[in-house]
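User: Quick sanity check before I run a bigger batch. Here is a single chain. Can you write out its predicted 3D structure?
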Amino acid sequence: MQITSLFRMKKANYSFISIFILVILTNLIHCAYGQEVILPSKGICAHRGAMNTHPENTIAAFEEAIRLGAQMIELDVRLTKDKKLVILHDESVDRTTNETGKIEDLTLRQVKKLDAGSWKSSDFKNLKIPTLSEALAIMPDNIWLNVHLKGDEVLGKKVAKVIIKEKRDHQAFLACGSEAAKGAKQVSSDILICNMDRQEKTEDYVSLTIESSSKFIQLYKVPVSPEIKNYTKALKANNTKVNYCCTDSPEDVELLFEYGVDFVLVNELDRILDAVSVPD
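Assistant: Done. Predicted structure follows.
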């Protein structure tokens, strides 16, 4: 093995250990002293982690997002053939691993044999697709977790159980449609929901979100214009937090904050965090 490769591996290991220790200490301090966890009121959301520099939806991408200081991290959850919860955006593993096939046709044991890193760079060779529990284990308890459900009622119920078991219900919200939300609410009526039943018209989407008493909305493909103020004003009046997906324009991010958006999902996390000041 080349010296440079060894150096990268050692550096990655040191980074993982440092982040892991920081997360554990932070969470222990909050528990030991009974401190109320204060979550960000506004910020930048790392879409699938630090996906521009690291393989999306992997532990490495989430660790980098934490290191960079993202106020929210988005991750996608799907069910395997044996009904295990894994982090994956696409229906298939074709794009982000060294194999092909639908995730619903693979068992967790088969999924864990896949290389989920080399497609991005040889530096990430043999990274694995994480389970939901593995992803939650490395998250600090003072950032928002945008848990996007790629499934129906069964998935909603399973994810809600894990969120509550892992004591993440104060910070994790389920971005999902009405069927998945129904399953989640069967587990706990207090589980936080981001309505993802997007309508053809933004006005209808906003109205449905307010009617359903969802705690979050995620505006999508809405032009960045002053008209967004009308939506955010109505949503804030009903205590709904507003996310926007997605942009990598620093100018647009700043305008979105000005128009009342709370969290902006971005792909180029490092560049946006360097370029934009998050409002207090």
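Residues 3-32 form the longest helix (30 residues).

User: Great, the batch can go ahead then.
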